[in-house]
């Protein structure tokens, strides 16, 4: 067994670069995913059957296929069909946004449906229209319900970025692969990758639990 503490230090510059890409892709991807998820979540609640069906198809297709298959389909399949190449980083943003958007759509749908229907009737009795009732009564209550599952989705998306190494996006796993190819110190490289992920996910989980407790008391 040849454990090399020096390699654990030497890999840090690689992983620092990977950390930047991981954070950037997660923040941008989940932010765009929030927009997509909110739109499609509300579409699923629409009374119009065509609109709700379109949203349901999007959610079920994304949730019913592996993320790795979605990555290969969008980065290799679609460009091959249309006849252009796509930058791996751009592909990463798009894929994470589409993937997280489907799960966030379900969070939005569940959050709105969790609000008591009497709240809607109360809004109407006050003379508010549908939009005003949603804006001022339903949505604020639904957002409180959505925050814990949204936090979980953020952590899941953060870890999902590791699959983007398969298309050479320079996130943590890809940087560890580059280091390992030069030094053959795989144990040290991937041990440090796990450590970097834990440094990100444990504080996020603690913050999420803190937020949940605050919401329960409010």
From TrEMBL:
Coiled coil: none annotated. It is found in: Cell membrane. One of its GO terms (cellular component) is ATP-binding cassette (ABC) transporter complex. Keywords: Amino-acid transport, Cell membrane, Membrane, Transmembrane, Transmembrane helix, Transport. GO terms for molecular function: transmembrane transporter activity. Residues 19-208 form the ABC transmembrane type-1 domain. It is a multi-pass membrane protein. InterPro entries: AA_ABC_transptr_permease_3TM, ArtM/GltK/GlnP/TcyL/YhdX-like, MetI-like, MetI-like_sf. The chain crosses the membrane at residues 20-43, 55-76, 88-108, 154-177, 189-208. One of its GO terms (biological process) is amino acid transport. Belongs to the binding-protein-dependent transport system permease family. HisMQ subfamily. This is Amino acid ABC transporter permease. It comes from Salicibibacter halophilus.
């Amino acid at each position: 067994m040849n454990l090399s503490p020096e390699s654990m230090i030497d890999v840090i510059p690689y992983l620092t670069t990977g950390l930047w890409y991981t954070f950037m892709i997660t923040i941008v991807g989940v932010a765009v995913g929030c927009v997509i998820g909110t739109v499609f979540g509300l579409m699923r609640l629409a009374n119009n059957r065509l609109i709700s069906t379109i949203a349901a198809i999007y959610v079920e297709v994304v949730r019913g296929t592996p993320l790795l298959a979605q990555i290969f389909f969008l980065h290799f399949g679609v460009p091959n069909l249309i006849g252009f190449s796509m930058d791996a980083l751009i592909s990463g943003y798009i894929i994470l946004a589409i993937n997280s958007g489907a799960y966030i759509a379900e969070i939005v749908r569940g959050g709105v449906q969790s609000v008591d229907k009497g709240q809607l009737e109360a809004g109407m009795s006050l003379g508010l229209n549908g939009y005003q009732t949603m804006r001022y009564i339903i949505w604020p209550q639904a957002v409180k319900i959505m925050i814990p599952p949204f936090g979980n989705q953020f952590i899941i998306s953060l870890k999902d970025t590791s699959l983007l190494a398969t298309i050479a996006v320079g996130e943590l796993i890809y940087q560890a692969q580059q280091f390992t190819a030069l030094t053959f110190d795989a144990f040290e490289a991937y041990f440090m990758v796990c450590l970097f992920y834990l440094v990100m996910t444990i504080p996020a989980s603690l913050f999420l639990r803190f937020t949940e407790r605050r919401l329960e008391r409010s």
